[in-house]
Specification:
Strand order of the largest sheet: 1-2-3-4-5-6-8-9
Radius of gyration: 24 Å
CATH class of the largest domain: Alpha Beta
CATH superfamily of the largest domain: Glycosidases
Number of strands: 19
CATH architecture of the largest domain: Alpha-Beta Barrel
Largest sheet: 8 strands, parallel, barrel
Low-confidence stretches: 1-38, 362-380
Number of domains: 2
């Protein structure tokens, strides 16, 4: 079993915060209550949904409506997200457990909650081999199965027509090698069932975007290429197809290097793309290093989406580690979501906020457009740098705090340092990062260019290493050596 997500495709509008409208209330929600030893309190940022709207994308989550009675769960849901997808409530076994006998209770709760917080509603899912009632699985006559599939799409998509912004029409149709999964729909109806389902969904919900969704398609591989070729064929054949979802159930440290390139090739076909079921699991109990590494991975996924014009946003598969599907399926693994089991934010929460350019503590927020040219730097001896490294296997996360120890403010800054042999920059945040030979350079972004006397700026990066994880040396800011 694999839980499921969302998709949204309309330009975002800025929405008022529906609950926790004050900074004090937000701080109370995000303040530490019972944090474990693996992570400390995270700073309070503006809601993800507000920061995302500046980029024209949405931030979604998978909702289990039975958890809305839990204060921490509901408060995070209301504060952070502007897209809602049912984790299980709209699947076939939940909506039509017996033929023609529909159950709408939990699905209606999901739709009502989305409306109550002015969030988009994403439908998941109409046709899927899993969580399928036995009475459907047992059908062997193609005429009967086609009728059943059409009736189900008509009923479910039709009920929420005008409310659901996008549907996962067909979910998980591929095997890992790019061959068709031998679901009852594939076995009895053949390859054409996908086009049939999309066409029927267009009739039932003419205003909704229609998507295909699958897992392990995040990288360019046999499975994603099969999806790519199918989407191209559907477009050529005039079949309604608007979007492709990438579930992104990932493992810490394994964000594919071809992630952004893969999203872009689908976007180039003329369809929208979305990260639909994001979680990043690790062995538990989680270590501080794993949590930092997870944060970098969350940041990388969000940044990949933001770099692709037709990426409509990111949906996380749940809210908190205490209600994640991961431990039930992957023994010894978990801690996959941005909030812990006490609804306290983890480093991944901050990483996503920073990737979105979220404002911190009500201050002036970051401008997504950086200004890299340094002017007005410090004199010799008027800066200090604290550099730390959290290493694993062949990589590490570097955290850098640069302090203005001089009497004059900086209007911009550029940090230069010598990387130890074998270290190679992979990505960075809160600055423009580059590497030339053994020299690492970080230039300010627009939002952190100004550094008053006595103030500090924090930046970070990921790098690979060949065994030497010592911190860079010969650090200078705007040409002046730092202590």
């Amino acid at each position: 079993m694999r839980p499921h997500p969302e998709i949204d495709f309309q330009p975002r509008r800025t929405r008022p915060l529906p609950v926790l409208a004050t900074a004090a209330a937000a701080a109370a929600l995000l303040a530490p209550l019972a944090l474990g030893p693996a992570h400390a309190a995270e700073p309070v940022y503006e809601p993800w949904r507000d920061a995302a709207s500046d980029h024209g994308v949405t931030m979604g989550f998978a909702l289990s409506p039975q958890h809305l009675s839990i204060d921490g769960y509901r408060q995070v849901a209301e504060r952070e997200f502007d897209l809602v997808v049912a984790e299980n409530a709209m699947k076939w076994d939940a909506t039509e457990p017996s033929r023609g006998a529909f159950s709408w209770g939990q699905a209606d709760q999901v739709a009502a909650f989305a409306e109550s917080i002015d969030a988009d509603l994403y439908g998941h899912t109409l046709v899927w081999h899993s969580q399928l009632p036995g009475w459907v699985e047992s059908i062997s006559d193609p005429v009967e199965l086609r009728t059943v599939m059409h009736d189900h799409i008509d009923a479910v998509a039709g009920r929420y027509a005008g409310q659901v912004d996008a549907w996962d029409v067909v979910n998980e149709l591929w095997e890992g090698d790019g061959s068709r999964r031998q679901s009852v729909f594939q076995r009895v109806l053949g390859d054409g069932y996908v086009a049939e389902a999309l066409t029927r969904a267009r009739q039932a919900a003419p205003d909704a975007d229609l998507c295909l969704n699958d897992y392990s398609t995040d990288a360019i591989n046999a499975k994603s290429t099969a999806m790519y070729e199918l989407v191209a064929d559907l477009i050529d054949d005039g079949v309604p197809i608007d979007c492709v979802g990438f579930q992104s159930h990932l493992i810490v440290g394994q964000v594919p290097s071809s992630f952004q390139q893969n999203l872009q090739r689908f976007a180039d076909l003329g369809v929208d793309v979305r990260i639909t079921e994001l979680d990043i699991r690790m062995n538990v109990p989680a270590s501080a290093a794993d949590l930092q590494r997870q944060a970098a991975d969350y940041r990388a996924v969000v940044e990949a989406c933001l770099a692709v014009d037709r990426c409509t946003g990111v949906t996380v598969w749940g809210i908190d580690d205490g209600h994640s599907w991961v431990p039930d399926v992957f023994s010894g693994q978990g801690a996959a979501l941005p909030w812990d089991a006490q609804y306290q934010p983890k480093p991944a929460y901050s990483a996503v906020a920073e990737a979105l350019g979220a404002e911190l503590d009500g201050g002036s927020g970051p401008d997504p457009t950086p200004t890299p040219t340094p002017t007005g730097g410090p004199d010799e001896g008027t800066c200090s740098v604290a550099w730390s490294v959290a290493a694993w296997d062949s990589g590490y996360t570097g955290t850098v705090s640069v302090t203005n120890t001089g009497p004059d403010p900086w209007s911009s800054w550029q940090l230069v340092a010598a990387l130890p042999a074998g270290q190679q920059l992979q990505q960075g945040w809160s600055a423009q990062w580059s590497q030339s030979g053994g020299t690492l350079t970080a230039s300010n972004a627009a939002w952190n260019a100004s550094v008053p006397p006595g103030a500090s700026v924090q930046v970070g990066y990921n790098a690979t290493h060949a065994g030497d994880t010592t911190v860079p040396t010969d650090v200078a800011v705007n040409g002046s050596a730092c202590t």
